[in-house]
Amino acid sequence: MTDQLIDGLYREGEPIADTKAPDVPVPEMWTRRKFDAALVNPANRRKLDVIIVGTGLAGASAGATLGEAGYNVKSFCYQDSPRRAHSIAAQGGINAAKNYKDDGDSVYRLFYDTEKGGDYRSRETNTYRLAEVSAGIIDQCVAQGVPFAREYGGLLDNRSFGGVQVSRTFYARGQTGQQLLIGAYQALERQIAAGTVQMFARHEMLELVVVDGRARGIIARDLVSGEIETHMADAVVLASGGYGNVFYLSTNAMGSNVTAAWRAHRKGAYFANPCYTQIHPTCIPQSGEHQSKLTLMSESLRNDGRIWVPKNAEDCDKDPRQIPPEDRDYYLERIYPAFGNLVPRDIASRQAKNMCDEGRGVGPEVDGVRRGVYLDFAAAIERMGEEAVRAKYGNLFEMYEQITGDNPYQVPMRIYPAVHYTMGGLWVDYDLEASIPGLFVAGEANFSDHGANRLGASALMQGLADGYFVLPNTIRAYLAKGPFEKVAEDHPDVQDARRSVSDRVERFLSVGGTRSVDSYHKELGKIMWEKCGMERTDAGLREAIEQVRALRQDFWDNVRVLGTADGLNQSLEKAGRVADFLEMGELMCIDALHRRESCGGHFRAESQTEDGEALRHDDEFAYVAAWEWGGDGGTPVLHKEDLTFKAIELKQRSYK
Amino acid sequence: MKLALSIWRQDGPRAKGRMVRYDIDGVSEDSSFLEMLDMLNEQLIEEGEEPVAFDSDCREGICGMCGVVVNGSAHGPERTTTCQLHMRSFKDGDEIVIEPWRADPFPVIKDLVVDRSAFDRIIQAGGFVSVNTGAAPDAHAVPVPKEHADRAFMAAECIGCGACVAACPNGSASLFMGAKITHLGELPQGQPERDARAVAMTEQHDHEGFGGCTNLGECTRACPKGIPLNVISQMNGDVRRAGYGHR
């Protein structure tokens, strides 16, 4: 490690590398790794305990699969039932290289599209494997009874998604996530009935227990009784989702949080590429300060809707139907004539924000800016007829009307970008093992597969790939070395972890300040959105770091958490999550500051082409930034993992 | 708008509950019902009173975690989830009574939060297809006629919120259970366990203390996902079939 402090913010440590991917050509790796991973005799599996935190697609599928295999699984979720995990809200579909349409799809093409879509910032080996196991996911889900869309012949239907040219997306109307999650949940409940999985709903992991350098358990709080519990195991799996709620307003569920991952980070797990956030371009705009959540509208709307803002700022509060065509700026069609309204997510999002920041946004003013652009179906209604539009988008139009009170058949919809998915996460190797041995990370909680941007319909694929197929195979290589010596609950490291949790709970309740937890969360969200959102600058990020630090200080001096620790206390739950977001936000800004290139959902204003397009710097930044916790009051340490590409060639993007 | 709220407050599972009146002003009609409660909670925290506990998570009508009885109706006056109920459904000056789901098998944990784990136990009894991971046949190996797939999908839309139980004068979970039995019963994958599933799930349902179905239809009127009453007929058919036709 260098002693030199860079930018006054961080130090650079030793480079790191994945050591688990076998040294064979990429297409042969997974087969080889599965063969090389030691087996665990069924009789010995019963002696091995695995903790899984999170019950979304990755966590529930991993729990079900490991339970079936015969391990003792303890599964945790903060919701009242594992069926509520936020994977349930994913709409569009799940990709798989089945080539059922015989349109030229293949494992290699799905791998290629994923790498390109992620702006070449994901690890080639993991991404290839994701594409490789994708086909098996569909088979597994169909066998479970997941009701995918079918054609009249009884076979599965596919559609294309996210700008790719093949139809590889399997879907269940607009509820693919829900149906896949229910499938995994049912498989999990089956194992609960069989006694291989023990379920702890309404429980939150608040600390990772590390003994002799290995993950050996967690400290969790029973959210109903308030009791702080110790759960020990031979291995710990985090499948706790992303951290998009650092922005407060996002498409994530209210309870989605970074705590499990952040607590592991503080115990030594590296956090990779934290600044990579995906922004979704077609969400329903914020209507006011009361708002708690942003609702995503399917991106398929961009196939027929035309996006515009008034040419003149003084027209912005007019009824859009009164603005004649010559006074409208169809800005995507103007700037990107080849792709028009179908430019990729990051471009569509950034341009919408630019229009609003310029003063040409529409809809209600929030914090002095109108944050909305029109998505207009008038031309589509004229061309196809209202009935055809209704058949194609009826449910979305109804949802929009339900939320906004406006009828989109008559008045153009308003949309605005929103935080949707985080590509960063805990650093893992090819085995999905974090930098703490015995800690595995699956789904959105890890960093490995999506690079700087996620392809549409790939989140569901990764969650299930990790949970059903990857993790159960790789974790056995680790568990084969066990069972590890039992750690007693009075071991000093366990006691320390417990004490840190109870001290923290006590501290929240004793500050006795004047401001609610939510008010801090909202303020943090505004800083992050403005300065570490879809467009970032050197100066803005430096300001954000100072502001986040000051806000964190104020939080600990002035937060008000009422009630007690010995029962259900939702303010207390939120306080813990927001305290962790206040640390996470700073690391996101530091990561964004150091990455002086534009890529994926991250547009760095200093790095653009003459035309204002995102400019990547592969010569300088083709690496994973894996951050090591520097201790309270210390500085984080950056470990770089060089991304090497053997199966694929790096290309610059162009959508002109 | 200005509203008068009467909210069920209960400190814990064994504590005695009571209705408490709160006045709130400045509610935007664009707020969701839960955002209105968030606003009330901010007001309560400022006044030093513990905020009202209520369940919610996705806030976009999918996860099924939210749910309160509003003026006597599960999820309130519109046929949607509480998180998708907007304040424009109310008028300035309205009085609104807010209670938790009322059903014995859903005991109150605190304020508006209830324990719905009985639903998970009903699923554990047989609401799944017994297939282990890794050896499934190709997805195209078993075609499913579109009308069966569509009906299975319709039933699979159930989000497990519990409004059907809260709305039923008998406290029956038949709509929830019928939805799962129909979803899996419509598909070839669900056939081998079809009889056993129907019997095991209904036995668990009764064991949990849910009441019997008398076809009043309140459940389907309250269901935010529009699950139709005929899933209950299908469930009854499967139970009968298991008892008489195939044994």
Assembly context of the chains? heterodimer
Element-level helix/strand string of chain B: EEHEEEEEHHHHHHH
CATH superfamily of the domain at 279-419 in chain A: Succinate dehydrogenase/fumarate reductase flavoprotein, catalytic domain
Question: What is the straight-line distance between the termini of chain B?
Answer: 62 Å
Question: What's the total count of β strands of chain B?
Answer: 7
CATH architecture grouping of the domain at 279-419 in chain A: Alpha-Beta Complex
Name the strands of the widest sheet of chain A in spatial order: 1-24-23-11-19
Share of β-strand residues of chain B:
5-15%
Strand order of the largest sheet of chain B: 2-1-5-3-4
CATH topology of the largest domain in chain B: the name is: Fumarate Reductase Iron-sulfur Protein, Chain B, domain 2
Query: For the residues shown, what is the average pLDDT of chain A?
Result: 95
Between the first and last Cα atoms of chain A, what is the distance in angstroms?
43 Å
Q: Give unreliable regions of chain B as ranges.
A: none
Main β-sheet description of chain A: 5 strands, mixed
Put simply, the count of helices of chain B is 8
The fraction of residues in strands of chain A falls at 15-25%
CATH class of the largest domain in chain B: Mainly Alpha
Q: What is the CATH level 1 assignment of the domain at 279-419 in chain A?
A: Alpha Beta
